Amino acid sequence: MLEICGFTLMKAYGKQFKKLLHLICVHYVPEVEKVTPPGRGGPVTRLKSFLENMIGNARSLQPPKGLLQPNFW
C-alpha cells in the first residue's frame, strides 16, 4: 500500500508523513519482531527495509507506475 500511496502522502504531508514512517519503524516494527515466530520474519524484515528506504530517500520518491494524470478523462 505504501508503494502506491507513499508518493502522494509524502507530497501532501511532507515532514509529518516522514515522522510517522519513522515512528512505525522505531516503535511498531520492533514490537512485531518480538511476537514473530522464529523463521517467519521475512515479511517483517522486508517491511522494515522498505520503511527505512522510504525514510532515507523521501525526496526521491517517484509516482507509482500507471498513475493517471488529472487531465486523463
Automatic annotation (TrEMBL):
Its main location: nucleus. It is found in: Nucleus, Nuclear pore complex. GO terms for molecular function: inositol hexakisphosphate binding; phospholipid binding; translation initiation factor binding. One of its GO terms (cellular component) is cytoplasm. One of its GO terms (biological process) is protein transport. InterPro entries: GLE1, GLE1-like_sf. This is mRNA export factor GLE1.
